Each structure stands twice: as structure tokens, then as C-alpha cells.
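Q: I'm writing a short methods note and want an example of a predicted protein-small molecule complex. Could you take the sequence and the SMILES for zinc ion and return the bound structure as C-alpha cells? Please keep the output block clean; save any remarks for afterwards.
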Amino acid sequence: MKAGTQKRPDRCGDFPREDEIWRIVPVKPPVVRRQCPGCRAGLFESTGKFRVNANKGRLDVWLIYSCVRCKRTWNMEILERTDTRKISEQERKGFQENDGETALRSACDSRLLQRNRAEALWKTMEYQVERSPWRKMGAEKDGPKERSVRTCAVALQNEYHLPVRIGKLLAGELGLSRKALEALAESGRLILPEGWTLRTKPGEGALQKHAVLLFLLSESDGNQITVGKEKYLYDY
Ligand SMILES: [Zn+2]
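A: Understood, no commentary inside the block.
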């Protein structure tokens, strides 16, 4: 292949070619802002460690945070005098053994943070999107070649209820600018669940944490998406 004829430029996006599952998972929990009695920084990070007190069939659990500047600790209450019979064996083990997944889940739990009057700085949270093929049960036999318009569905899973704006997530995953993404939605090539806009944060509050997004790709598009006269991917 001659230089300059390579197909994909670096900035090309990554549209789903087949139905996919996108799982939004945290990598690093948000930093928490609250008053620190030791210094003025007032920013705390999860240590990933729990403090557990078991007494007469009751369990107290805290997640330990540490001030980013003076290292003073603050315990975020997770369970208070909770009947141990109401806690699964697996959950209890997670607390007692400082399980990383359990600590991450607790430090990203917006309801828990609110209850503790801790202000989570969500911009400091890091997350990733795990993409995997998704085969619907009883999917039709005809291959995409027999259809003039191909639909790719993305099943979005946000089981941690992370307050991530759908527009930001899609722009990152598809390698599109905000403007290009809006054009995609306006042209009807990207169909969001009912009532959603690009500003929706799935999984937040009462919003569903699982949803399906649809992309309409015509067969002739191949590896690119055409929005009006503009082409994305190869000709970006
Ligand atoms: Zn401090």
C-alpha cells in the first residue's frame, strides 16, 4: 500500500457495525468536597478501604476517605446498625475484605454521597465504556446485505448510575464533535430513547439505567456515516 492511501485516518470514529452492548463502568470514583478540619483543601479521595463494626447482629460500615493535602481521614457512612441478616454474604465479605468493586460502587453511589452531605465532583470521575457484541434472541436470519437500510442497536448499561451525559459519552465513543453529533441526531440517523436529548444523563435519579440507542446505517455507507452532505469517519 502506498503512503497516503491508508483508509482510516487517526481521528476516525467507531460506529457500531453490529448490535453492541455498551457498559459504562467507573475506573476512578469522584473526588469529594467537604470541609477538612486539618487544612483548607477540603478535597477527599476514597482510599478503597472500609471500616466495619459488627456488634450483636448489627453491622456498621464506612468507606474511608483521605484528604488529598493533609491526609486526614473522613469516614463515609454506608450502613448504620443494620441487621446482618439483611446483608448478603457476598456484600458483607466485600466490606470486610476491602473488595475493589464494592469500594468503587460505594464511592460512585450518588444517593449515598448525598446522604452523607458529601459533594461529589463528578468531573473528576473517570469511566470507560466496555463494548461487546450483542445478539438479540431470535434475531432475523437475513444478513445486512439483504437490507437496504441497516439498523444497529446499542444497549446502554449504566448499572452504577453514573451521571454521564449521553452526548458526551457518544461524542467520545464515536469520535465526533458535539456539532456533528447533533447533526446526526437531527438527521434521524441516531435515535435516542423516548424523551431523551443529548443532555440526558441515563441512570440518574428516576431515569432508566438501561436503554437502547439506534443507529441507522445504509448499506452503501460501509464504514462511514453520511449526514446530509457530510461524511464522517473516512472524510472527517
Ligand atoms: Zn486536609
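A: Remarks, as requested: Residues 20-27+126-232 form one domain. The helical segments are 89-96, 100-107, 110-115, 166-174, 178-186.
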